[in-house]
Design a protein that fits this description.
7 helices; alpha/beta; two-stranded antiparallel ribbon; TIM Barrel; about 40% helix; globular; about 230 residues
C-alpha cells in the first residue's frame, strides 16, 4: 500500500518513503490535471515547508519541487526554517537540483534574516524576497522565542532598504493570514491591511508609487506567470 499522505501544520504535503520520481509526478499532475482527485489545477508549488535543521524528507520534497519546476516552468514558494542559515541552505539544494531560483519565493524573511549584511548576501542569490507577516506584531514569538518579531514600520524600513539597494524587482509583500483572529470579522486587520494601512505609510517613508506598484502588481504577475 502507498504510505499515508501526511498534511503538515503549515499546509505542506510530505510523502514518507516516496521516491523522487513519484513525488515529482504528484506535483506535476496536480498542476496539469488537478489536486486531490479534483479537476482544480494548482497555480504554484508550495508553500514548501522546511524545518531547521532540515529533515531528509524535506530535502527530498525540495528536489522533487525543482524537477517539477524544470518540467513546467511554474512558480514555487518556500517556507524556510526558523534560522538565518535556512534560506541559504534551501537555495543551495534547489540550485543543485536544477530549480529556477528566479521563479522561487523565499517567504517569511521578516522573521528569518534580521541582519543587513546577511540579507544582502541572500538577495544576491536571485530569489524573490517576501515580507509577508504584515499585521503580525508580537511581543513573544512562540515558534522561535529568540527572534524579536519586527513591527510593521520595521518591515516597511526593510522594504525600503532593499529597494534602495536595487532589489525592488525581487520584493513581495503579504499578510500570511492563517487564523480567524486575523480577519476583520474577529477584530483583526484583515486582507485589506496592506492597501489600507501599509501603502500610505510606505509613501510617508519615501517609497515612490512606482516602487509600490512593482512590489504589489508587477512582481507578483511576473512570478505567477509560467515560463
Amino acid at each position: 500500500m502507498w504510505p499515508r499522505l501526511i498534511r503538515l501544520k503549515r499546509g505542506v504535503l510530505l510523502w514518507r518513503r516516496f521516491g523522487l520520481l513519484q513525488l515529482t509526478d504528484i506535483l506535476v499532475n496536480e498542476i496539469l490535471h488537478g489536486a486531490d482527485g479534483t479537476d482544480i489545477k494548482c497555480g504554484v508549488i508550495g508553500e514548501i515547508g522546511c524545518s531547521w535543521p532540515m529533515t531528509e524528507s524535506e530535502q527530498k520534497v525540495l528536489q522533487a519541487t525543482a524537477e517539477a519546476q524544470t518540467q513546467l516552468g511554474c512558480p514555487v514558494i518556500i517556507h524556510p526554517g526558523r534560522n538565518s542559515d535556512s534560506p541559504f541552505h534551501i537555495i543551495r539544494i534547489l540550485q543543485e537540483a536544477g530549480a529556477d531560483i528566479s521563479k522561487t519565493v523565499m517567504s517569511h524573511l521578516d522573521r528569518t534574516i534580521l541582519e543587513r549584511d546577511k540579507l544582502l548576501e541572500f538577495a544576491k542569490l536571485g530569489s524573490y524576497l517576501e515580507y509577508d507577516l504584515f499585521g503580525m506584531e508580537l511581543l513573544n514569538y512562540a515558534f522561535c522565542p529568540v527572534v524579536d518579531m519586527p513591527c510593521d514600520i520595521e518591515r516597511i524600513n526593510w522594504v525600503r532598504f532593499l529597494t534602495d539597494e536595487g532589489y525592488g524587482d525581487n520584493l513581495l509583500m503579504a499578510h500570511d493570514i492563517h487564523t480567524k483572529n486575523r480577519l476583520t470579522k474577529y477584530g483583526g486587520h484583515g486582507f485589506s491591511h496592506i492597501l489600507t494601512n501599509i501603502v500610505p505609510k510606505m509613501k510617508q517613508r519615501g517609497i515612490p508609487q512606482s516602487a509600490i506598484d512593482k512590489i504589489l502588481v508587477e512582481n507578483p504577475k511576473r512570478w505567477l506567470t509560467f515560463k
